[in-house]
Amino acid sequence: MQRNWNLVKTDDSSFDAGIGFRAAVGLICLSVDRASVADLRNWLSFVEGVEMLVTRVPMDKVADAASLAAMGDHLTKAAQLLASSGRLDAMAFSCTSGTVAIGIERVHEALSAAQPGIPVVTPIEAAAKGLKALEARRISILAPYHQEAADLVADHLVAKGFALDRCSTFDLDGDQQMNRLSPASLKAAARDAIHPQSDALFISCTGLTTAGIVGELEAALGVPVVTSNQATAWDALSNASVGNLSRGEGRLFGQAHSAKVSG
Hints:
By secondary structure, the protein is an alpha/beta fold. It has 11 helices and 8 strands. Helix 4 (96-102) packs across helix 7.
């Protein structure tokens, strides 16, 4: 059937700047993860005009050193899908323990092979940068992992110069459980996890929903609280040069980001 279509004319005034008129952040998350996308979007939401582009890599239901490391084989292909056109200001791999299991250098190389010149953000590096920016030296850690994966994170932070006063974990299999940890459970665990001599609490794992609880926890504990998704957002927005981040939740967003502060 032949149809006559009326042509709707456009000119430059017909188009706006798009969703990401301030910045576009790429996120590579896990196939089993149902929490990090929404949580990171909430962490980014205080800055108007930030677009989040999402792709995924395969991951087993149980997080151990082998399954975490296996994700490294899929990073370049996933990063290629983030943006074939338009802006991309930073890209993040959304797995704290997975970054350590794969190797930080390998993660950077794999993502940069797909998107040369785009800043790479990882949660473990962002958390270390954030804790250093907050001048925290002694920290407590709250994690959801089995001990093997939890030790990956703890050992990395020790290697970066942090003293670990207390390490606590929910000892869960993977994202199917981690993603469903309630805010009430996280807040109660955080209160028990903090050591009285610690300068800060680090809540590790992008699979935990932490937006909305950090301010309350900082008020209750009297120390900064840094989470994987919060630190990822802070690092990504800083790399994207979006300006003042002080309206973000938690003391971390009041800290200037500096390339001199190494993760």
